[in-house]
Each structure stands twice: as C-alpha cells, then as structure tokens.
Amino acid sequence: AEEEDRRAEAEHAAWEARGRVPSEIDVYWPDDLQFYVAEVLGFDASTGKHVLRYHIDKQVEELDLSGEKWYRHLRSDEEGGELLRRITAVFEAKRTLLSSPEDADREGGGSAGDVAGGSGDTGGTGPSAATGPGPSAGAAASGSGDSPLRRASAVAAMGRLSSGGAAPRAARGKPRPAGRCGACEGCANYRAGLERGRSVDCGVCGHCRDMTKFGGRGRLKQICEVRFCEAHPSSRKSRLAKQARLQAVNTAWAESYMEERDKWERGHEERCEAQRAAREARTAQRAQIRAARLAARREARRRREREARKRGSGGGGGGGAAKQRAADAPPRKREPPTPRVVEAVLESNGQPGYLERFLVKWAKRPKSEATWEPLRKLPAEQRAALVTAGREAFNRRVEPLLSGSPAEPSSSGVVAVQVPEHAAARCAAHLHTRWRDGRLLLRQGATSCLGYSTYGKTLSAHDAQQQATHTLLMTNTLLPLIRDELPGFGEMEQFLVAWLHETYGVVVELYFAHALRQSTLTVRSTGFDVHQDTEDFPFIEFTVVVKLTPDAPGSPHSRMRLVGAPRVFEYGAPAGSAGAFLARAFHASIEPDAGTSEHLKIAFFFRASTKGERRAKRGLSAAVLASGVEDELARRRRHVALELSNSNLEAQALAAEKKLAPWG
C-alpha cells in the first residue's frame, strides 16, 4: 500500500510538472495537414510553454499549447484503439479529398478541436491521427479507401465529429516529412532554407506580400510559392491536372450522352414511322369496309325496288303504274319561307349603345306581332329613317311637351331657365383667363382639369385634338375643387338644384359637368350629333346647359333640338341663359350660322337624390289633390315623377316576354 501511495504521489508530481498535460500528445501542423506525436518533457511556469520532443525526428521544441490544437495520444493497445483506427481512416479519407491547405486547415482543425486543451491522463479521450511510424500510421493506411461512397461517408462522419477549436498556428520551420515529393524545385528550395537556417522567400508573390516581415498583415499563413511542392494537392500543376481530368470526364460524358440521344431519336423516328404506317393501314381498311357496306345497301335497295315492280305489275290494275310514275317523278323542292319585310319602326327602347332595340312592325302582319330588333336587323337602305322614327316615338313617350302645338315654345321639349347673370359672367371671366391648351389649373397648378377626346358623335368628322382643347371634363372627384376655385359655379349649381325641385318636384344632386367652347370652328369637336346623356351613366335624370357668355349684338342665337320636336330651342341673348331637358331624350346640337359668336357653355348633369325624393313626390301629389286644378305644369310634374319611379319596369317586362335579346 505504501508503494502504491508513493507511485501515485510520483505520478501526481509528474502531472503537475508537465503543466497538467498528458505525457504524450498529438500536435496539429496546418501546413502539412498532419498531427505529429510528441512527448511532453516538462513545463516552464514563467513562460507558460511546454517542452516537447517529437517522435518522428527527435527534435525538442518549446511551445505554448494554449494556442495550439492538440489532444491526448491514444495507443492501439488501449481501450480507445478501435476509435483510433476509425477516426484515423476518416481523417486520411478527408485529407485525400482536400485540394488546398486552407480547406485542410479548416476541416482538419475542427476534428482536433474536440479535445483541444484537454488535461490529465484520463481527461482527454480524443482521436489520434499521427502519421509517424507505428500503429497509428498502419491504422490510417488500412482504414483509407478509394470508393466514392466510402469517401463521402468518411467526410460526413468527420463533419459530425468536428466541433471547432483554437485557430491554427503558422508554420514553425520544422522539417515536413509528409506531403512533399522531395524531387521538385519547390522541395529543393525548402531543403536549402533548412540548411541555411532560414527560409528561402521570393518577397514578391502573394504569400510573401502577406507575411509580416515583408510588411503584410499575416493572415494567409502560407509559405512562399517558390517552396511549393508541385506534387502537393494545392499546387497549380496539380490543380490544372485535376481540371484536365475533370474536363476529360465531362467530355466523355457529353459524347456518351449525345450518342445515346442520337440513338433514342433514331429509334423514336422509327417508332413514329411505324405508327404512321399502322394508322394509314387502319384508315384504308375502314374505307374498304365503308365502301363494302355502301355497295351492300345499294344492292339491297335495288333488290327491293325490283321486287316492288314485280308485285305492282302482277296486280292487274293501274295502281302499280301509278306507283311507278310516282317513284320515277323527281322530288318536289320545298319553297323557302317568305322573308319578313320591315314596314315601320314604332318605337325605340331608349337604351344606350348596343343595347338599343327597335319595335319593328312587319309588312302584312298586325301590330300585335311586332318584335324588338337590334339595329343590324333593319334594312341598310332605310336604316337612318327607321332609326329616326323610332327615336322620335321614344322622345314623344318620355317627354309629353313634344305633343304640344308648334307655336308654343314648350313644344321644343327644352324648358328655358335663367341662372344668375353675375354668376355666369364671373365663371366665364375665370375660364377666359385660366383655361389654356385644354387644361384648367387647380390648387395653384398642383391639379388640372383636362378635356376629353374620344367622343366621336359630332356633326362633322371627329377631331380628337381639337376636342381635347375645347372641352373640360369636371368629374365627380374634381367637383369639390371646382366649387371652391371656379367663381360662380357653386352658385349656379345651388340655383339649378332648387329650380329643378320646384319645377319637377324631384330632389337632385350634381354628379358631373362639362365645359365647352362652341363656334363655327368647333363643329368637329363640340357640335354633337344625336345622342343621349345616359350613355355612360344611366342614372342621370336631368341635363341643364348654361350659356355663360352673352350674344354679340346682331349675332344669331345658339340653338339645339330634341329628336321629333316640332320646333328647335333657342338660348336667350344674356349671359346665364339655359335650357333643361330629360337626359334620356335623344337630342343634338345645331350647327351655328355664319357670324355666330363663340360661346362658353357648361352642361350640368343631375341625378335623382334618394334623400327627400319620396317626400317631394308626396308633397306634390297632396298639393294637386288639394287644389283640384291640374294645369299643364302640374301634369308634367306628375308625369316625370311617375317616369322616374317606373323607369325600369318597361325593360323588365320586355325581358320577361323574351322580346329583347340581351346581346342582340
């Protein structure tokens, strides 16, 4: 027992003398991608360095192990022998795959870092990869292989065992027994440096310029290029050879692929040709079968005819001869049905664009059989007259004023109204000064009100550029700005809303407006042909066109017309003269006479407001019933209210009777 205690005390004293480091360790050298076995002889506490003696060359070196990668050396006869053989094989396989010292340093250093800084004879159990003579080298040789699958498995296993460690240190100028061929120029320069006691460096290559002794930052940690071994995997010749081998493999693979591809294409063409021949054979066979069936049917029909003739001739009467004559007689052709002829167009449904239909009365048929037809069903030579007749009937139905005497001004279908003259004059003056090049600036130039150029229903050939210059589109979005910045506009709007409520008993609100210049020079842009103001917005109920400028002395009045009206409507001479009419009615401008001055006009488009509309209708009806007297204006008010409330009933009835096709 005393002897064991003395042995334990001696081992503990040796452990403390070695600075708590095992007696044998494996030290990693980054330039050689190797771990070398070294014996720890002692420890200098003043400098913090250990005294090591390498087994491979018996050289002694003082080294600070705190900045190095090392682990306890395992012998093959110890408990970790099997682990030693496996890890050595993995490291050798990975070292074979590495192509540069940087990759080897990064990958190999990670495996050694598992036990870097381990202490005690029993504290470190990390792997050993010593390549010197002995069992470690034999295990490495026996564990490596050339199989790609084995190499990939070795790399994966090495990656799982790696966990990082201290940064690798630079080369220390010791002999490099492994990784050099010893016959190239780089190896000769390396040996010359060893004999002279200092390395042979060129001082101009990239590695030398990075060295601290040449003023570099010392980050690459690589030797001079003149000392590179040409057989080393990181050398340029080795890389070029590897690239050449890879290119040869790729070329061989490409040639093999193209050969197989050509072979497949030839086979594919042969298969397609065989399939085509098979299809042609099947088609010919089907044609033969059809011809045989047709011939059989013809023969059967002839046989039946012969038998019928025999039976008819053997009857003894004249019935057989009559049947034979009937059979021999050519078949009678059916006469085509008599085409329908348009006699008149009774009415238009008033729908905009392609939805417009015309109630057509056909010749030699009663009115009860009249049908709704699209425009394309009308004869081309009579189309203009028939369309005009249908639109006149529609206007007379929706606007009862057109049925009055031509001597009455109201028979034009447009009701004259005078807006405040000073408001119209202020608005015209502002437009004269601010409306330039089809643009009205708002918010001090931040926003603009522009014209439109795509409305082609003009009295003459449409001029898009002129239309964009002489029109302004005051959309619903711009109306708040227009009311604030266009003088007189808001006052005219409020006046017209109150006037329409008083005249028609309907609460309305302004939806959008147009400003335009009209003269003899703008017929192609602002002189409009027959149209409706509900083409884009079907919910518009009333249109009021206000003339902002007065007529020049002796100048003809500006005019417009409703289709089917007994007389035209003339605007008054003063500024603010206006005309109000139903937006659904078909109307058109009248080309101004020579000498007519240019006028500024604003067309206000109102829609029925849901607020107060029913209340206004009820109040109007109560007033009429209370008075007991129903004059012309009261009758018109009641008619307009009825039209507004039942505007969709007619279209619904036509759709229910399937007389109105939805798309023509």
Number of helices: 18
Structural class: alpha+beta
Largest sheet: 6 strands, antiparallel
Mean pLDDT: 75
Beta-strand residue fraction: 15-25%
Instruction: Name the shape in a single word.
Output: elongated
CATH architecture assignment name of one domain: Sandwich
Low-confidence stretches: 99-178, 658-664
Tell me the number of strands: 20
CATH class of one domain: Mainly Beta
CATH topology-level fold name of one domain: Jelly Rolls
Alpha carbon gyration radius: 54 Å
How widely separated are the two ends? Answer: 120 Å
Strand order of the largest sheet: 9-18-15-20-14-13
CATH homologous superfamily classification of one domain: q2cbj1_9rhob like domain
Fraction of residues in helix: 40-55%
Please supply descriptive tags for the structure shown above.
6-stranded antiparallel sheet, Chromo domain-containing protein, 16% strand, single chain, DNA binding, alpha+beta, Jelly Rolls, disordered C terminus, 5-stranded antiparallel sheet, zinc ion binding, OB fold (Dihydrolipoamide Acetyltransferase, E2P), 18 helices, 664 residues
